[in-house]
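re: that chain from earlier
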Amino acid sequence: MPTLLKRIRRRQVDCPICRRDALDVTPRGYHGLVVSCPRCGSYRIMREVLGTVRMLDVDKRLAALEKAKRLASAPVWPTISRGCLAVVVAVGLVTAM
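^ sequence. v structure.
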């Protein structure tokens, strides 16, 4: 098995965005969550905003993911960070972070 695969957790989780079955592919030591979802795609959520993302309704979670996708450049996976949530706040989708 390649070294990288040994360092990645692989377990079933609920996608934090759509709540469907997904795979946690977070590398050990990463400060956040890395998800591979058949519906939402592969993306990362920084630890500092993970709790906030989980509390949002689906439209707000999708808006944050879409912002992360627009900011990402290949081959980097989209990352939901404070900046993505700040945009959602700025357009009035979230009242506070």
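Residues 1-5 have pLDDT under 50 and may be disordered.
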